[in-house]
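We modelled the chain as a single entity of 71 amino acids. Its sequence is:
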Amino acid sequence: QNGIACEVLPANIDEESVKEDLLHWMPRVKENGVIAGDDIDNEGVANAVKWFFNNEKLDIIGRQWMMDLSQ
């Protein structure tokens, strides 16, 4: 399957920019890939990530977040 196996979002940390990045990159990540980012301690990032993944299993370690799409 074509696509990106792992994408790390280095986005701006305002909520709208993170939402735009998620909407742009998620269709390009492989079905069993990983998407991740940092600054989850920022309210804008946290709101956007939680909005996009709708409370699915999200791994958060320190300031980093990760969603393993193979689960």
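As a brief sanity check on the tokenised model: The radius of gyration is 11 Å. The mean pLDDT is 85.
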